[in-house]
Amino acid sequence: MAKRGGFPGGGMPGNMNNLMKQAQRMQRQMEENQKALEEKEFSATAGGGAVEVTVSGKKVVTKVKLDKDAVDPDDVEMLEDLIMAATNEALGKADEASAAAMSSMTGGLNLGGLPF
Question: Most buried of the four, 6, 9, 72, 79, by CB within 10 Å?
Answer without folding.
Answer: 79
